[in-house]
Amino acid sequence: MIRKTEVEETLKRIQSHKGVIGTMVVNAEGIPIRTTLDNSTTVQYAGLLHQLTIKAKSTIRDIDPQNDLTFLRIRSKKHEIMVAPDKEYLLIVIQNPCE
Amino acid sequence: MEIVYVYLKKRSEFGKQCNFSDRPADLNIDIPPNPELAAQYVERNPVDMGIQCSVSMSEHEANTERFEMETRGVNHVEGGWPKDVNSLELEQTIRFRKKVEKDENYINAIVQLGSIMEHCIKQNNAIDIYQEYFNDEEEVEVTDEASSAKTINVFRDPQEIKRTATHLSWHPDGNRKLAVAYSCLDFQRAPAGMSHESYIWDLENPNRPEMALKPSSPLVTLEYNPKDSHVILGGCYNGQIACWDTRKGSLVAELSTIEFSHRDPVYGSIWLQSKTGTECFSASTDGQVMWWDIRKISEPTEVVILDITKKEQLENALGAISLEFESTLPTKFMVGTEQGIVISCNRKAKTSAEKIVCTFSGHHGPIYALQRNPFYPKNFLTVGDWTARIWSEDSRESSIMWTKYHMAHLTDGAWSPVRPAVFFTTKTDGTLDIWDFVFKQSDPALSLKVCDEALYCLRVQDNGCLIACGSQQGTTTLLEVSSGLSTVQRNEKNIAFSIFERETRREKILEARQKEMRLKEKGKTEGKDDDQKDKELATNLEEMVAKAEQEFFDIIFTELKKKEAEAMEKKAKPKKQSLEMDEEVEEDNTGEEEGGDEEKSA
Q1: In B, which residues are within 8 Å of A13 by CB distance?
Q2: DSSP 3-state of B368
Q3: Which of A10, A98, B113, B522 is most exposed by smallest CB count within 10 Å?
Q4: Of B79, B97, B118, which has the smallest distance from its Cβ to A14's Cβ?
Q5: Where are the alpha helices (DSSP H) in A39-83?
Q6: ipTM of the shown complex
């Protein structure tokens, strides 16, 4: 129970940072567990980023089998998409870094 | 046939130690070849036989059946819910989510991922990695490259008998074409059979001229009409003015009548800025400047005789070799003469005598080129004899800046249309000099040998990059100048302007001083003070030499005068003495008479 509030706090804190547009937690099947954006956007992000994360992970592992992917950042003209991968879940945050 | 060789060994010798011994070769059997057997064989020639002691292997190829692959994607609208959860029912999905959130794994994962994520978010907020730091600094234009120019193309006179390329004109739109006038300027030495044609060249095709212009007499000058690029004005060797329309063909469209044209070759012809775009004027060594309207080219609209004594006598007139007209100063024009004098004229003067405003003299020979600086029209460049000079309209006694005397005559010169301090000159030894007086005053910034024969004319294209020069053998060379010489440098306009101003002031001071000295000569004979206010310039030296010469002659002059005065005095003295002696002689005479009388009495 106490741990659960920690999770809540963490996610809330992330969402409240400056420039953060949206936060989502997605599982490996693409089901959004927690999200601040609408469902269709979340599912789209989940599907695409999941594939990309797997590709990135396999790239890192191919180059050096002892290595592993810890974080993925995609900077675009409009904003930055940050993906923190886990075995089962994906934490995705979209931030607008411009001051 | 069996060949047998029998070895014999006694039984008692078995196991005995071998004693080897040498013996010469012993022929056992000699079987000569049987030539009859050869008939059973056919010779094979050549024989191709591989000899190798290795495993023989064979190579095979096989092509599998084509395997078709297709890539397909599925766009999920809804995530992969497990089978027991119906995605449409809100309750079930919420329940599922809650279940996941309670999962231990989930909690650990999120906490851990959350901390990493926060770190990156904060990073993003702390620094913008794509920020421009050095926005405010201007790009410093470093012209490290040495100035250079390279030949791009060479257009040769296609005629057998080579003529001099006497004038060049760039096409006004786009500068893709070049009109070149060919003629032989040696007086009456034009070889028989010399063609009168002049050509228009397309820069892309140096092998053949794009179009030929066929006048009745060779063309000395040629100009495109800046308003209408199809019309070309040409000045002929026999003094006529001709006009072409390139759309109509190579034959002359309009030609002036011989009686009213010039009597000598037309050396200068320029289009005027007018509303109709049909007016032009021309100058020739017969001493006349004529204005024409090409719609009625049979007669000139106006004639001015270049008589600087203002008496309008053709006998006194100076022959014109170059003509200058700047469209920003439409009432003034300048004429460079064979006698080395530049005449500045006003077109709008009421009487013909008043047309001539003032003269500038300083060259020893014909002034082949005359052009105002495109940025500072008060200053103009003249090229003649062995030097090039820059003048200011305010300073009439002498030029304000000049180059040193070269080994070869200078034949043509032009300002760069983009850089106020750069001008080009050509010489009879085939070199093209590029002068940049902001960079170096005593020598050209760049001197190029273009060809072996003399260069006669020069024309710079409007962008300042391309230069065309024509030579005595009719070869026109197209050169491209490096970007350092064709792009305006920082502050160059101001520097050039200040140089002009300074030189003009210096000349004025010298003029004033000379006037003072002339006045002083009449009165006193004194040494002069050193009142030079010149700044450091290489031309300083020449100026000081000239001044020293002047002083020297002045001193001699005053000395001579002094001597004369003294001589006059001396003459006066002996006269006086002779008068005194006469008086004495008279006294003696009277004395002698008295003596005589005394003798008589005694």
Answers
A1: 114, 118
A2: strand
A3: B522
A4: B118
A5: 39-63
A6: 0.83
How many residues in total does chain A contain? 99
| Alpha carbons B147 and B467: distance in angstroms, whole number | 15
List pLDDT tens digits, range B191-235.
777 788 888 888 888 888 888 888 888 888 888 888 888 888 888
* Residue B572: partners with Cβ closer than 8 Å, 6 or more residues away: none
Structure tokens at A72: 């993925």
What pLDDT is attached to residue A52?
Answer: 92
pLDDT for position B354: 66
Average pLDDT over residues B369-398: 86
* pLDDT tens readout for residues A14-36: 998 888 999 999 888 878 888 89
Residue B495 is inside which H or E element, if any?
helix B492-523
**CA nearest to A26 within chain B:** B79
Q: How high is the pLDDT of residue A83?
A: 93
Does residue B333 carry a pLDDT above 90?
no
Residues B130-134, mean pLDDT to the nearest whole number: 75
Phi/psi region, residue B359 (left: phi>0; alpha: psi -120 to 50; beta: rest), is beta
Q: What does the alpha-carbon distance between residue B176 and residue B200 come to, in Å, rounded to a whole number?
A: 10
Compute the radius of gyration of chain B from its Cα atoms.
Answer: 50
Q: How many angstroms from the chain centroid is the CA of residue B392? A: 23
Q: Provide, as residue numbers in chain B, all residues whose Cβ is less than 8 Å from the Cβ of A95.
A: 121, 124
Question: Which of A20, A31, A86 is nearest residue B109 as measured by Cβ atoms?
Answer: A86
- Within an 8 Å CB–CB cutoff, is residue A51 touching chain B? no
**Size of the A and B interface in Cβ pairs below 8 Å:** 102
Helix (H, G, I), strand (E, B), or coil: what is residue A28? coil
Of the candidates B546, B487, B478, the residue with the CA atom closest to the CA atom of residue B513: B546
Instruction: Round to whole Å and give the CA distance between B285 and B438.
Output: 36
Burial class from Cβ neighbours inside 10 Å (0-12, 13-18, 19+) for residue B52 reads exposed
Dihedral in degrees, nearest 10, Cα atoms B573, B575, B580, B582:
160
Q: A41 touching B, CB under 8 A?
A: no
A11/B114 CB distance under 8 A:
yes
| Closest alpha carbon within chain A to B105 | A88
Phi/psi of residue B231, nearest 5 degrees: -100, 135
Residue B329 and residue B355: Cα distance in Å, rounded? 15
The yes-or-no verdict on residue B448 having pLDDT over 90 is no
Q: What is the mean pLDDT of chain B?
A: 81
Candidates B107, B108, B113: best to mutate against A (most CBs of A within 10 A) is B113
The CA distance from A64 to the nearest CA of chain B, in Å, is: 22
Pairwise CA distance, residues B547 & B510, whole Å: 9
pLDDT of B599 higher than 50? no
Q: B284-295: b or e for each residue (b if 16 or more CB lie within 10 Å)?
A: bbbbbbbebbbe
Higher pLDDT, B318 or B457: B457
Residue of B78, B87, B110, B128 to mutate when probing chain A, most A C-beta within 10 A: B110
The answer to whether B51 touches B62, Cβ cutoff 8 Å, is no
Residue A49, chain B, CB below 8 Å: the answer is no
Mean pLDDT of the region B4-8: 85
Which structural domains are found in chain B, ordered by start?
149-488 (2.130.10.10)
C-alpha B228, offset from chain centre: 27
Taking CB atoms and an 8 Å limit, are B80 and A29 in contact across chains? yes
